[in-house]
Design brief:
By secondary structure, the protein is of the alpha+beta class. An 8-stranded antiparallel β-barrel has the order 1-2-3-4-5-6-7-9. It has helices spanning 2-17, 25-30, 98-104, 108-112, 120-129, 134-140, 226-239; strands at residues 50-61, 74-85, 90-95, 144-150, 153-160, 170-180, 183-187, 194-197, 200-204. Helix 3 packs across helix 6. The chain has one domain (25-239).
């Protein structure tokens, strides 16, 4: 009996912590912004040699385990939202100082809703020094995507990575109106739990994590050109 329990725990633990789930056909079809690796020209419209920081006020349920579901009894809380754009059309949305998260043993919700001095530039330096650190893997997994420029609007399609039996794949779509070189304003669908979404403000950094390590680039369907995906995979294999 103990042996059976041990095997079950080993199996469940592995599948809960590592992505082994195939992306369903419907999700692939709905993700229409295929990656082509071409220069986007976004850096001529807004600054991107750094990251954008956004603050969101929302209604948060006081009932344990009922995050953003039952807001009949709620308190006002804050979410810190960070995103980064690259000149090849890739973007990473909804990341945070994951190094701080691992050091302080916080889950992601706690990380987002805590007022503390974040050091994103230092976090970026740590990623560059150790690509295999847990916080680096957290940055390169999940919520990466592609953006497109339509006039004064940036439209994003990003993918949430399924990591457990209770999770699922889903596409995150966002739009930002360009205000000036250092400011973008989210154009969002009305949500009664969201009270205020502030402008996303640009903060410069001396360096950024390289985008070519993102997990999505490993998938052939994500690329517009299959031959470019093959070249990328060959290079990745040779570099390891």
């Amino acid at each position: 009996m103990k042996k059976i329990i041990y095997i079950f725990i080993l199996f469940f633990g592995f599948h809960s912590c590592h992505t082994t789930w195939e992306i369903d056909k419907n999700t692939k079809q709905q993700f229409t912004y295929r990656y082509d690796g071409k220069y986007s020209g976004l850096d001529t419209i807004i600054n991107i040699k750094g990251y954008y920081q956004q603050t969101i006020l929302y209604k948060r349920s006081k009932k344990a385990g009922d995050f953003l579901k039952d807001t009949s009894v709620y308190e006002i809380d804050t979410i810190f939202y960070f995103l980064i754009f690259y000149d090849n059309g890739l973007c990473r949305i909804n990341f945070d100082d994951f190094a701080r998260q691992y050091n302080d043993n916080m889950d992601f919700i706690q990380l987002q809703t805590h007022w503390y001095p974040r050091n994103i530039p230092l976090f970026f330096q740590k990623i560059k020094k150790d690509l295999n650190a847990p916080y680096s893997l957290s940055f390169y997994n999940d919520r990466w995507g592609v953006y497109r420029i339509f006039g004064d609007t940036i439209k994003i399609q990003a993918l949430h990575e399924r990591i457990s039996l209770n999770d699922g794949w889903y596409i995150i779509k966002q739009q930002y109106k360009i205000i000036d070189m250092n400011t973008i304003q989210e154009i969002y669908t009305k949500n009664e739990n969201m009270l205020y979404v502030n402008h996303a403000v640009f903060l410069p950094t001396s360096e950024q994590p390289l985008p070519l390590y993102t997990w999505l680039l490993q998938y052939k369907w994500f690329w517009k050109n299959a031959s470019e995906w093959e070249q990328y995979m060959r290079k990745e294999t040779n570099d390891r």
